[in-house]
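Possible regression after last week's pipeline update?

I re-ran a chain I had predicted before the update to compare outputs. Posting the input and the new output here so someone can diff against the archived version. Not blocking, just want to make sure nothing changed silently.
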Amino acid sequence: MGGRTGIFISLEGGEGSGKTTQCVRIVAHLLSQGRDVVETREPGGTESGEIVRDVLLHRVASLTPRAELALYLASRAQLVEEVIRPALADGRCVVCDRFADSSTAYQGSARGLGTEFVERMNHWATDGLAPDLTFYFDVDPEVGLQRRTASREPDRMERERLEFHQRVRAAYLEIADRHPERFRVIPTEGGEEDVWTQVRQALDPLLERQEGRR
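New output (post-update):
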């Protein structure tokens, strides 16, 4: 676990939160500063992870909560060892669209497996790796689902009932309360530019601190 010198940023949010749009902006901002950036996603980011992603989101109609969690953990473990740790050791910035907190919210809370249990499993799968900064883009689930389903066919997770997504949102806010050292909750009601301003207010100080340590 030694030798980590890069910056690890994760993005979390409910369906239709605008998370992926802000991911693009964060990557562009880092590149504009001359930083070496690795952009990845969960589940996915590796050859095996993309196969798991297809199974989780598109290939099957249902999975038991434990089977679902196991697949996410497998994809995550491969991504950490194959992509994230080597990039951080090389001093690169890693920007990941979803990471371990997604499993805590979706499988731990909304699926009822227990947040403490899922966090222990996350710690095992990642060998203790956690982001330096996590953005949670907060959106009313009803609004977010309307945005997402209006743009394309919903995947397996997006087809869950509204109550499920409401539990996910509550779980994320609880996780943010427990991890204030790395979580930044970004309300999304004000639109894309307002969200980006809030992101910059949290991101730029981190970049400045890291630059000062070089």
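Follow-up from reviewer: compared with the archived run. Strands lie at 7-13, 37-41, 93-97, 133-138, 183-187. Marking as no regression found.
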